[in-house]
Amino acid sequence: MIRRISGWCAATLFCALIPLAAPDLDGQTPPAPRSDQGAENTVKLRRLAVGVHARIFLLRPFGPMGSDQTMSTSVVSGVPYDFDYNTGSKSYFYGGGLTLEYTLGPRTTFVAEGLFNQLRFTQNIDAYWGVVNPETATDDRTHQSSVQSTNARLWDAPVMVRYKGVGSSGFLSHMFVAAGATDRFVSNIRTTTNTTLNGTTTTDRTPLAASKKNLLGAVVGVGFQFIDDFGIRVTPEVRYTRWGGKTFASDSAQSPTNQIEVGISISH
Questions:
Q1: pTM, full prediction
Q2: For 60-75, what is each residue's pLDDT tens digit?
Q3: Residue 17 falls within a domain, yes or no?
Q4: Which of 124, 150, 183, 244 has a 20 to 30 Å separation from 142 between CA atoms?
Q5: CB hemisphere CA count around 231 (13 angstroms)
């Protein structure tokens, strides 16, 4: 009887140890987690992310308004008129707004933004008319000078699709390219023109007319996106925009059709 009980206990113990020893019996072990997996693979990302975007225009000729100078001549009733236009931009080199990201797939993301920039520029206008007296060393024609200061608000709404897959591993795995379209709307145009003639100065507050209040363009970009353990996305990038026209096109006040900016987005 004792032998039977001992045999039954031994068999029960042997059966209990089989599952524990199974991995060693066939030489297999559970796969270890990969050491090169980043935070993006270990964190379940939200499909929709909302955040803020800031941008900087490093080069004034490729920003909201550049500096330019033009000259023209016309004849009215036999009297020649010479005009000298000189525009200087005083616009802020930075701007920003809101950004929205929607994940379409493992490598593609839809991006929509609403961005704001304050536009400021001054146009100096010098007009000369009459007949030049060749016997004098100075220009004794009638001279009228005007200083035209304009402020406006620019609203940009770019929509793009990002493709993340330039590199398969390492730093380049965070790189992406983007392309899409953008729309620009100008509002709150305010202009003050001070004109001086024969020592008398007059003021006019008629707003400078926009060439196109609503303007379409194409935009492309390249950048990187980094995601931390909490799912916060940091996205620095460089963008180029080709506008289909000019917001302002008055004499020397010519809005650039090419735009280059450096930006960064933070979203979650």
A1: 0.80
A2: 899 999 899 999 998 8
A3: no
A4: 150
A5: 11
